């Protein structure tokens, strides 16, 4: 069992504050951060029948698919033969985040800005296409770009190259927890001297090869009704829906952001990661450690963005972790990913974006599908419509990854 960790830099209390200054989103229910956020507040779901491939022979045919993304609108033509869909979505989100931050990388110190992303699948569709070429035509027909287009770190690399971000770069592979773990790693780089980091995660693996992998795990809902397929914390929950997309964010040292007059969404106040032991879920430990890292108590948290597995046992375990900290129905809990499906590593960073916008607009987005939580999940789950009227200053974001990864992050209003 791995020991729990807070920020891996081991930075002392009082270390430089990290603030979010830019947000870029590619999500099944909205392309672009404001389009997505307004869809979330309307309770508009992006879960629908798959169209990216013929899924009629598969037992699961629903996904959170991003409609209307035109590659050529977001990616230079010379990059199209080199990149998988996940990289093209990532490049679009990164550009939006940097534009939103008003940051010009050319004006930053040469090695002062970098990229840390998370990935769960790399360029899956690209890899499938090249394997088809290998088996049907022979090795001479496999693209040389396969050498990097499939790789987990390709998004960080392509974003770095396109925007001239020559500072620290890396990738985190912790499945659903990755979107938080990457931001924590970016904070570490700020504490080591970087001034700006593009961070977060986007994942996309809606192709037959990726679908086979998702099905093999046995956790996807087989319910064919998009409105009833993914029901976090519901007594009738039967599994999750897989989606594509996520969020990339610009994280800056607060002093540097202030010096250039940047607007801030909020601060990355606390973080911790744990790993489950045998029959010992440790999500609650991650949350406690993240609050300690932020110098806050549970009573300071105004809303929790849940991991929301959509499976009965996993939902009960998360409900137990939340009630252990806050008591039964002790804090508003929401799961806007009920409108997108689980986006692998992209889901947690999209929840971070939702938390920042919730703090900005003083509104808690709803969980859709689930009408009321099951009796064994005693949560104050926000359902049906957004909730207002509660002062929102601090949000706790929870995430779990396949294999036992847990992460928790605390964000505070600007």
UniProtKB/TrEMBL annotation:
<keyword id="KW-0808">Transferase</keyword>
<feature type="domain" description="Ketosynthase family 3 (KS3)">
    <location>
        <begin position="15"/>
        <end position="413"/>
    </location>
</feature>
<dbReference type="InterPro" id="IPR000794">
    <property type="entry name" value="Beta-ketoacyl_synthase"/>
</dbReference>
<dbReference type="Pfam" id="PF00109">
    <property type="entry name" value="ketoacyl-synt"/>
</dbReference>
<keyword id="KW-0012">Acyltransferase</keyword>
<protein>
    <submittedName>
        <fullName>Beta-ketoacyl synthase</fullName>
    </submittedName>
</protein>
<dbReference type="InterPro" id="IPR020841">
    <property type="entry name" value="PKS_Beta-ketoAc_synthase_dom"/>
</dbReference>
<dbReference type="GO" id="GO:0006633">
    <property type="term" value="P:fatty acid biosynthetic process"/>
</dbReference>
<comment type="similarity">
    <text>Belongs to the thiolase-like superfamily. Beta-ketoacyl-ACP synthases family.</text>
</comment>
<dbReference type="InterPro" id="IPR014030">
    <property type="entry name" value="Ketoacyl_synth_N"/>
</dbReference>
<dbReference type="GO" id="GO:0004315">
    <property type="term" value="F:3-oxoacyl-[acyl-carrier-protein] synthase activity"/>
</dbReference>
<dbReference type="InterPro" id="IPR014031">
    <property type="entry name" value="Ketoacyl_synth_C"/>
</dbReference>
<dbReference type="Pfam" id="PF02801">
    <property type="entry name" value="Ketoacyl-synt_C"/>
</dbReference>
<dbReference type="InterPro" id="IPR016039">
    <property type="entry name" value="Thiolase-like"/>
</dbReference>
């Amino acid at each position: 069992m791995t020991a729990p960790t807070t920020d891996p830099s081991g930075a002392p209390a009082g270390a430089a504050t990290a603030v979010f200054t830019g947000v870029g989103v590619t999500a099944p229910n909205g392309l672009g951060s404001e389009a997505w956020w307004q869809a979330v507040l309307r309770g508009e779901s992006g879960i629908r029948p798959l169209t990216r491939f013929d899924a009629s022979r598969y037992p699961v045919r629903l996904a959170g698919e991003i409609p209307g993304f035109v590659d050529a609108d977001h990616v230079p033509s010379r990059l199209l033969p080199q990149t998988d869909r996940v990289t093209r979505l990532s490049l679009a989100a990164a550009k939006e985040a940097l534009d939103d931050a008003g940051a010009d990388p050319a004006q930053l110190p040469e090695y002062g800005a970098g990229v840390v992303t998370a990935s769960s699948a790399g360029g899956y569709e690209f890899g499938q296409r090249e394997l088809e070429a290998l088996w049907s035509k022979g090795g001479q027909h496999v693209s040389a770009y396969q050498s990097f287009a499939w790789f987990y770190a390709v998004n960080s690399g392509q974003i770095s190259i396109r925007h001239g971000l020559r500072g620290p770069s890396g990738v985190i592979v912790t499945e659903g927890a990755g979107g938080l773990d990457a931001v924590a790693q970016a904070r570490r780089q700020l504490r080591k001297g970087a001034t700006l980091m593009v961070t977060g995660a986007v994942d996309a693996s809606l192709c037959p090869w990726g679908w086979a992998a998702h099905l093999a795990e046995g956790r996807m809902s087989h319910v064919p009704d998009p409105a009833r397929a993914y029901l976090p914390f519901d007594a009738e929950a039967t599994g999750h829906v897989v989606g594509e997309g996520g969020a990339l964010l610009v994280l800056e040292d607060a002093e540097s952001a202030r010096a250039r007059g940047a607007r801030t969404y909020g601060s990355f106040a606390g973080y911790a990661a744990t790993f489950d032991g045998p029959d010992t879920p440790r999500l609650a430990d991650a949350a406690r450690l993240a609050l300690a890292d932020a110098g806050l108590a549970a009573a300071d948290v105004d809303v929790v963005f849940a991991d929301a597995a959509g499976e009965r046992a996993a939902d009960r375990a998360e409900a137990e972790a939340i009630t252990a900290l806050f008591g039964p129905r002790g804090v508003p809990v929401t799961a806007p990913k009920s409108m997108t499906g689980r986006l692998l590593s992209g889901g947690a960073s999209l929840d971070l974006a939702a938390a920042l916008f919730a703090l900005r607009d003083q509104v808690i987005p709803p969980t859709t599908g689930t009408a009321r939580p099951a009796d064994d999940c005693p949560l104050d789950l926000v359902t049906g419509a957004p909730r207002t009227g509660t002062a929102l200053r601090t949000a706790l974001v929870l995430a779990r990854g396949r294999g036992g990864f847990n992460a928790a992050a605390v964000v505070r209003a600007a």
